[in-house]
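pasting for ref. prot 1 ->
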Amino acid sequence: MTFSVAVSGASGYAGGEILRLLAAHPDVEIRTVTAHSNAGQPLVAHQPHLRSLAHLTLQDTTPEVLAGHDIVFLALPHGQSGQYTDALGDTPLVIDAGADHRLTSSAEWDAFYGGAFHEPWTYGVPELLVGAGKQREALRSATRIAAPGCNASTVSLSLAPGVAAGVIDPGDIVSVLAVGPSGAGKSLKTNLLASEILGSANPYAVGGTHRHIPEIRQALAAARPSTGSGPSAGSGAHSGAQDIRISFTPVLVPMSRGILATSTAPIVEGVSDAEIRQAWESAYGDETFVQLLPEGSFPRTADVLGANTALIGLAIDRAANRVTVVAAVDNLVKGTAGAAVQSMNIALGLPETRALSVNGVAP
C-alpha cells in the first residue's frame, strides 16, 4: 500500500528535511506541499536540493488543501499547528513537528510559550524510556504524533537511562549545548546572519528560559518507573516533574546543522561505575539509532551529519561525583524530521528504519 502525504511548511528547514527523507521512502507518495508567503512558487525554488520533487508547487496552507491525505506533516512555527489539527479529524495520521502538542501541562505551556493550549499527542521519540518500557509501544497505535524538540530529545535521551535506573540524581542536572542555527528555522533574524555567527559562539535563552526545558522535565519524569504514567501520556506526566531540576544553556555556534549536548548529574550514593554504565548499555544496546560509544570515546557532530543517529559518550567523574554524558545529533534529522519519519513508520506498522540511515556524510 502507498500512503499519500501532505507536508506543510515545506519551504522551511524542517519541512525540507521531512521531504528529503520521504522522497526516498518506498511506501509514501508526496502529493502536496504547502507554505504561507511562498505559496504559488515551485518547491525547488526554496529546496533546490530536492531535485526528485521538482514537479511540485507550493500551495496555500489551509485545512482544505491538507485534507484528503493519509498522512499530514505539520512543519510550522510554534503556535501555528493547533489551528489546523482540529480541522484534520478525518486524516488517519497527523504528525506535528512544532511544539503545539508536546506538553501535557497547560501551566508549563503558558509559562514557556503562551497562547492557546492544545491537547498532548503521543511523543515521537521511540527509544525514550517510559516507566518499565519505551515510547515505541505507544507509537504503534498512534494516530496523532508530536515530534520532539531537537534540544529536548537530545538531552532526554542522554539522561533517561540514568534516571530510570536510579543511578543519577535528576535534581541537579546541568546541560550545555552547542547548537547550529538551522534549529531556529529559516526566518530572517539579525542574530542568525552569517556575519553575526561566523567566528563567534553566542549563548541564548540563558537562565532557565528556553522553551525545551519543560519538555525535558516531562520526558525524564516519565522515565521513572515510580512516576512514569505510561507511554500514552505523551512526553511525560507533569506531576512527576517538579523535583527534576535542570540548568539548560544552549550556545549558537557556526555550523549549519548539529547539536553537541554535554549533560552532567550527580551520582546516587552507593552506585558503582559498572552499574552506571550498565544503565545506558541496557537502555540502548539493542537500538539502531541511539548508540552508546565504547568507554573513553565521545561523539562529534560531524559523525551524525545527515544521519538519524544519536551517538552518546559516557564518563564517570568521581572527583566531582557526577556522570557526564555527551550526545551528538543532527538537529534536522534525529532531532526533528528523522524522529517524525521513524515514528510514522512505527505507527503504520512499517519497518522502523525505512528511509532512514545510520550513516552520516563526511567530510
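and prot 2 ->
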Amino acid sequence: MADWMTKDIPDQTGRIAVITGATSGIGYETAKALAGAGARVIIASRNVEKGKQTLSDIRAAHAGAEVSFEPLDLASLTSVANCATRLSASLPRIDLLINNAGVMAIPTRHVTEDGFEMQLGANYIGHFALNLRLLPKVLSGNAPRIVTVSSLAHRSGKINFDDLQCEQRYGYWSAYAQSKLATLMFSLELDRMARAQGWNLRSNAAHPGYAVTGLQSTGPRMGRTGPSRQERFSKLLEPLLSQSAAAGALPTLFAATSPDAKGGVMYGPDGFYELKGSPALAEIVPAAQDKAVWRRLWQVSEYLTGLSLDGVAEASAERKRQP
C-alpha cells in the first residue's frame, strides 16, 4: 500500500457508485477520483446549488464524466426514504455505496427532524436507514462494496445506551466520538452479517486522518457568528499535522477500489498517529471490537428507524431471478 495514489485506482468503467456528502472535502475528492476512473457517480447531498457546482467542477476535471446529483438530508428519515426510493427506481444496481457525509463538534445540542441528537442522527442513524433501504440494490451489484467513513475520534467514543441521544448530558466531542464509533461498528457488523448470510458483499471502513476540510468549521460554527476556539486551535496545528482533502480521501478510495482491500477492517493514513500518510490498515481500538455492542446497536438502530434486514436478501435474490 506504500505510496498508493489515485493513479492506482483500477478501471471503474461500468461500476455505479453512490456517495453521500460529496459536494466538498473528502467526499468531493472521492467522487472526482471515481468519476475520473470511469465510474458512474451519484452524489447524494443536501445542498442543491452546491451539487450543481460540484457536477460542473468534476466534469471540468474529467471530460465525459458521468455524474449526477440526488437531494439527501441525512437528518431527516423522510428525506432518506425519498432518496432511496428514487435511487432504487432509477439505478439497475449499486456497486459501491460510500457513507461519507458527516458533521463534527456542534457546540450545543441540536436535534434532527426526527428528534435524534444531530451528530448521531446525521452521521450514523441517517446512514443506517439509507443503507438498509438500498441494500437490495447493493446486493444486486457487481462485487459490491460498502465503505463507511469513520474517524480517529472513534478511539475515545463510547456507545451510551442509557443516554444515546445525549439528553441528560451533552458534550460536543463525546457526542461526535460516539457517532463515529457507531459508524465503525455498523461497518464491522454489516461485514459480519454478510459473511454469515453468504452475501457477495464487502463492508469496510476508512478514516482520513487529519484532513483539512469544511468539517473543522461547519459543525463548530453552528449557533455561532464566528470561528470557535477549536477552529482557531486547529488552524495552528494544520501546517504540522494535517494533509489535504485529496490525500485524506485516499484511504476511502483504497477501501472502495483496491483488489487488496478486505472487508471487516478499517483503512487510514500510515503516518504518526494515523494523522497523515499513505493508505494502510488502521488501528481499531478494543472497545470498538465488542460484537455484543455491535449487535445491540444494530437492534436499537432498527427500532429507531423502523427498518430491519427482514426480506433484504430475499428481495435481492428475486431481482436476480427476473429476466
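The radius of gyration is 18 Å.
The CA atoms of residues 30 and 253 lie 6 Å apart.
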